[in-house]
Write a structure and sequence with these properties.
With 185 residues, the protein is of the alpha+beta class. It is built from 4 helices and 5 strands, in the order αβαββαββα. Strands 2-3-1-5-4 form a 5-stranded antiparallel β-sheet. The longest helix has 18 residues.
Length: 185
């Protein structure tokens, strides 16, 4: 069974975007290609066991085994050695990507404390959108009692859009809660 958001994209959103953006070919319509979730653990340089908590949290959130990121260079000011584990990341594609996006928009983002909308300036110029969350506890599958330390994470939505406006139109169609621009302020 196809994920709910993917079915919605195929049946409603794609045709609507094609009409709104004035695209002649259905293959020009922007679509989501992957989601990258990155969680840093800079304090893992002092205690190597902390990276296990990061990996476990990311595995629980995404349903996929994370890749452990290691330091490329030694930096003495940060007490960092080359090859030390400093974070973990997951690249989601296919059905897992659609399921994660659905949970992100409908469950996790509404649970952010003092939420006033996502920054609409998080686009990179090519239609990809990145934003950060301050704690992994916004995801309902994380058990609050088993969390060793509250950590933030970066989430990047990679699209096939050619411009930021096309990427924003795609994410608006998925129901992303962008912050409203203040007029005259």
């Amino acid at each position: 069974m196809a994920p709910r958001l993917k079915e919605k994209y195929d049946s409603e959103i794609r045709e609507q975007l094609q009409a709104d953006l004035g695209l002649g070919n259905v293959m020009q319509v922007p679509r989501l290609s992957k989601i990258v979730v990155n969680m840093g653990a800079g304090d893992a340089a002092a205690d190597a066991k902390l990276i296990d908590g990061v990996v476990a949290d990311l595995r629980t959130i995404t349903g996929q085994q994370p890749k452990v990121n290691r330091a490329r260079k030694s930096v003495s000011n940060f007490k960092l050695r080359e090859g030390q584990a400093i974070g973990a990341s997951v690249t989601l594609r296919g059905d897992r990507m659609w399921e994660f996006l659905d949970r992100l928009v409908s469950l996790a983002i509404p649970r952010i404390r003092d939420f006033r909308g996502l920054n609409p300036k998080g686009f990179d110029g090519r239609g990809n959108y990145s934003f950060g969350v301050t704690e992994q506890l916004i995801f309902p599958e994380i058990d609050y009692d088993k969390v060793m330390k509250v950590r933030g994470m970066d989430i990047t939505l990679v699209t096939t859009a050619e411009t930021d406006d096309q990427g924003k139109a795609l994410l608006d169609a998925f129901g992303f809660p962008f912050r409203r621009q203040q007029v005259g302020a």
